[in-house]
């Protein structure tokens, strides 16, 4: 079998089973694990999968540049945002992450909603200008242009002074084993820090993020108290979320 044919079969197995293991693939194709690892390295270099210890996971499409992400699963993001908005109560202190899904939330907020929104996203802050009853606190720091959010020591120091009711967190991958992931190391650290400042963390995940992974781990799925999705999820992931008492909306 040609290496190119084997790679296509590996991608097919990955799409069906949501993960592959080097040892198992070696036995399946009757070749050495070194050959399998080379295949996985080359597929990862092409952006077709995410390598992890012992194998690989589906790669998230949500790590593309911001301009490209705006057109990915847009209808799904709108439906998810509509569900997420229902979790907001007047008078709450809410932290809203940057991202294309959270941006869709702003369009659905009641015009008379009275609450406080804390964000490290200039785009989110500007999007709330026309809501007179919403107090906006913009957390400053070094701007990470890929996601249009601030990061760094000053941002972490400022967020440590906030006690919020809900954090609406954006991620690029949601996977039972890999957990919640994103495409930047420092951004993952920032998201973890914000989680610690909120009573509840709500993760909004459009379809391309489910059962996929990115290079940097935010944390286990248990960081989230609620996962907001568009449609039903596979049995393995659903059972895991239920066992960890993570609500699915």
Instruction: Summarize the main sheet.
Output: 7 strands, parallel
Strand order of the largest sheet: 6-5-4-9-12-14-15
Rg of Cα set? 19 Å
Query: DSSP strand (E) fraction?
Result: 15-25%
| Tally of structural domains | 2
What letter string, H or E per element, gives the SSE order?
HEHHEEHHEHEHEEEHEEEHEEEHE
Give average pLDDT, whole number.
89
Q: Tell me the structural class.
A: alpha/beta
What coarse outline follows from CA principal-axis ratios? Answer: elongated
What is the fold named in CATH at topology level of the largest domain?
A: Rossmann fold
Protein name: DeoR family transcriptional regulator
Keywords: Repressor, Transcription, Transcription regulation
Pfam family, one: HTH_DeoR
Domain HTH deoR-type: 3-58
Describe the secondary structure blueprint for this structure:
Elements: H1 3-17, E1 20-21, H2 22-29, H3 33-45, E2 50-52, E3 55-57, H4 66-69, H5 74-85, E4 93-96, H6 100-106, E5 115-119, H7 122-127, E6 134-138, E7 142-144, E8 149-151, H8 153-159, E9 164-169, E10 173-175, E11 179-182, H9 185-195, E12 198-204, E13 216-219, E14 226-228, H10 235-243, E15 247-248
Parallel strand pairs: 4-5, 4-9, 5-6, 9-12, 12-14, 14-15
Antiparallel strand pairs: 1-3, 2-3, 7-8, 10-11, 11-13
């Amino acid at each position: 079998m040609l290496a190119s044919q084997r790679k296509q079969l590996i991608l097919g197995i990955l799409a069906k089973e949501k993960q592959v293991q080097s040892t198992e693939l070696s036995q399946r194709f009757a070749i050495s694990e070194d050959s399998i690892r080379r295949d996985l390295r080359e597929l990862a270099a092409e952006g077709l999968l995410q390598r992890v210890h012992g194998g690989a996971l589906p790669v998230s499409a949500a790590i593309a540049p911001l301009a490209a992400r705006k057109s990915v699963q847009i209808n799904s993001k709108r439906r998810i945002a509509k569900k997420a908005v229902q979790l907001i109560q007047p008078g709450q202190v809410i932290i809203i992450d940057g991202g294309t899904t959270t941006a869709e939330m702003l369009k659905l907020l009641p015009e008379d909603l009275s609450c406080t929104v804390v964000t490290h996203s200039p785009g989110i802050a500007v999007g709330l200008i026309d809501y007179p009853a919403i107090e906006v606190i913009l957390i400053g720091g070094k701007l990470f242009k890929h996601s249009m959010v601030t990061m760094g020591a000053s941002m972490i120091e400022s967020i440590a002074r906030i006690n919020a009711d809900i954090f609406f967190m954006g991620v690029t991958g949601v996977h039972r084993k890999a957990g919640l992931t994103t495409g930047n190391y420092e951004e993952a650290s920032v998201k973890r820090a914000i989680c610690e400042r909120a009573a509840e963390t709500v993760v909004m995940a459009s379809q391309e993020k489910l059962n996929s992974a990115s290079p940097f781990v935010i944390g286990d799925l248990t960081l989230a108290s609620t996962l907001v999705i568009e449609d039903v999820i596979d049995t393995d992931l659903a059972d895991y979320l239920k066992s960890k008492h993570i609500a699915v909306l």
